[in-house]
Structures are given as C-alpha cells and as structure tokens.
User: Fold these one by one.
Assistant:
Number 1:
Amino acid sequence: MHAAVSDCFAKYPFAKGTAYQRFSCIYQAHSHYGPAAMGAQYSLLLQVDLASLNVGKDVDSGVLTQEEGKATLHWVTDKAYTQASRYSRVATQPQRN
C-alpha cells in the first residue's frame, strides 16, 4: 500500500492543480487495500487523506503557496503519526484491575 501511495505522489506531485488527481489516486489505493491492511489507524489515515485534499485545494486556489502547502501537509502528517503512535501504545498496554 505504501508503494501505491508513493506512486500517487510521483504521478501527481504537490503542485498547483494536482489536488483532486492526487487525492483520487491515494483514496483508490487505500480503498483497494482497505482497513485490513491499515489496521486500527484506518479512520485516522482517511482523515489525513481529506486534510491533504483540503491543503491541495488551498494551493490550487492560491490561498497557500506550494511551500506553505508542503509545510502544512507535513504538520498534519506528523500530528497524525503522533496520535496514531499514542493510540498504539495505549492499545497495547495491559489492562490494570
């Protein structure tokens, strides 16, 4: 799945006018592999996909520059990773009685 998503970024680099094509490509890759491949973070990953689309639309419309869009997307991805890591640690900790 990671390779499929990476291919989407290669085909549709983060540039003005590519938001919908990139989002569609990534969404199709995630849909193809589904929740079984992504585990407990499936819904979180879909939120990142939607955030990526919104950032891309802001770049397309000129609200953000390409560099601002890249920085914003990086921030969203880091935040999602932190949240997913925190969830994973909590889910794997033994329950105390």
Number 2:
Amino acid sequence: MSPKQRMITTLWCAITMASTMVLSHGHLVMREIMLHWPSEDSWEGRLENALYTQGGLVFLASLVIGGTILLRGYFLRVREEEMTRREISQREKHERAAANRHEAMIESLAKLAGGADHGRGIVAAKKSHASGVKPR
C-alpha cells in the first residue's frame, strides 16, 4: 500500500471512529451535561465535565484502534517481505535448474556430434542466435 493510501486509510479510520464514538456515547455525554447542569455556571464547564467522564472511553478506543492499525501494518509488511524473499528464492532455484538442464542438453548434443569442444561451440552458437542470448 502506498503512503498516500495509508494516510487516507488512517484518516478514514479516525473519522469513522470519532463518528461512531459520538453516535454511541453522545447520549452519555448529554446525560453528563444535564447531570451537572445546576452545578456549573457555563456551557464550557458543563461540557468539560461531560468530556472528562466520557473522554476516557474515547481516548481508550482511539488508542486501541491506533495500536491495531499499527500492528496490522507491521505484520502486513513482514508478510510481504517474506513473500518477496520466497519468490526470489523460487526464481533462483528455477534458474539454476534451467541452467543445469541446458548444460546437460548441450553436453548430450556434444557427445552426439562427436567432439566435445567442436560440438559445444556449434550448439551454443545456434542457441544464442535463435534466442538472442549471448553465448557463455
């Protein structure tokens, strides 16, 4: 995932989490405001009391979601690196096996042609011109 996509995903998760918390805990915040209505003189004090009591839940939820996103990103990166390493290993193994088969084929053709050096040069030259690969 590109850094831009990660940023968009993180922002979307934060917006979703905040809206979910407002929808799920909005009634609790309003209850706290109404509970402390007589004891506070201003809206700021009432809202502050409500947010102190319910803000802990919002903070805890944001920590859990943020930590989960970070851990998920870490494990996805580790898994991606492992898959890349396996792919490179399999590709190298395949290339070695193909080279061994190619060498065995050249040796068998050289034996059929009669001379090991002479036959190898002819077969390698034919192979290189046909495939576009330089001879070894």
Number 3:
Amino acid sequence: MNETTQTQINLGDYNKPQEQTKAVGIGKILGKIINIKDFRTNRGKPSPYTPKEAIGDDGLTDYNVIDTVETFDVNNQMVSSFFVTPAIVKQIQRVPNYQSELSAGKVFGPCKIGQKKSAKTNANYWCLLFPGEEGY
C-alpha cells in the first residue's frame, strides 16, 4: 500500500500546528464522477518517481492536490484528496476565476476521471472528462 502523507501549510498561519493531508493519486478513482471543491499546490518531499528537474534547491517538489465533495473508499480508507497531474491542473486553470470561485464555495464539476491519448506522443494521460464528452 503506497500512501503519501504531506503537510499542508497555510503561510498566513505558520505558527499554528500544521494540518496533515492524506492524498492518493487520481488514478485510484478512474471512471468516478467528482465535484472539485478545492485545488492547491503544496511543497513536499519528492517520491522516487519525481523527475530530477522537478526537485527544487530546497530538496522539495510541488504537489497539486484537489479535494472532492465526494469521499471514496480507496484501499479501505475514506479519501477525498487526490494528487493530480499537470494536464488536470491546466484544465482547472482554464476555468475563468477558478480560485475566487472555489474560495466562494462553488464547485468545479461534475466531471469524470479519465484518460486520453496524446496526439503528439500517443501516450495516455490523466484528464477530467465533462458531460457530453467522449468517455464521460
């Protein structure tokens, strides 16, 4: 059971105890319909799979995490935080005012966790699929 625990730090409140966020890779809920209620980037320890160029001078790397309205049973744990790929980050960032919308309590969805094939490399990549889109 590979599980990553990372520390979420609210820079405005750095004197308070740090909150531990348990998150798993988005692939664990392939095919599930989700509604995203939060998106954030945290710095944490790199995994053995982290590309060397993604590791900063501080020895840490960025992790993109979403929180979902829904909670899923993953490896006998109830999880609502998921690590997401750069492709999914780009999809979220294309939504106008996504940060202020999420801060205001609005959700991003419904969408489904899926995979598409890259036209450039022919490799599969993780993405969000939306109603009416092939694979939804």
Number 4:
Amino acid sequence: MRHPVDAGARQRLLEAQRAEAEALRRVETADKGCTSARDRLAAADAKLLEAQRTLVRTSGASRAALLLGVDETTLRRDLRRADQSSDGLSSQVNS
C-alpha cells in the first residue's frame, strides 16, 4: 500500500480513517440496540402467547376471543402458528 507523500494528504487520510472508525462504532452500537430490542420483543411475544393459551384453556377459545376482542379463527391460528414454530425449533435443537 502506498502512503501519501504530502503532509496534507496524510492528514486528510487520517481524518477520513478516524471518521470511518467512528461511523463503524456507531453502526455496531445501533446493531446491538436492535438485537436487544428484538430479543425483548420475542420475550414479550412469548409471554403474550402463553397468557393467551392460559386464557383459552380457562375460558375456551370462543370466550377468550370475545374477551380479547379478536376473531376466534385468528386467535386459534396465531396460537397454532406459535406451537408449530416452537415445535420446529425444538426439533432442530434435538437433531
């Protein structure tokens, strides 16, 4: 790699490298924040689904849907999808 001969060019290169390093640090920090937010959202979704399952077991799907203000078909579908997703994950872990 060639080094700039001119002192001004070297200074501009160093400034550009510093700016690049700072921008990269900011990207990494933002990425960590996004990952953390996704993890918290996944945990909240899991709690919500478990609470919905409990309500369905306690009150039945029709009553649970009425209490939640959602369509019964939608509630059943969402719970079934969550069960299939968790079954898929556990079978991958056990493989």
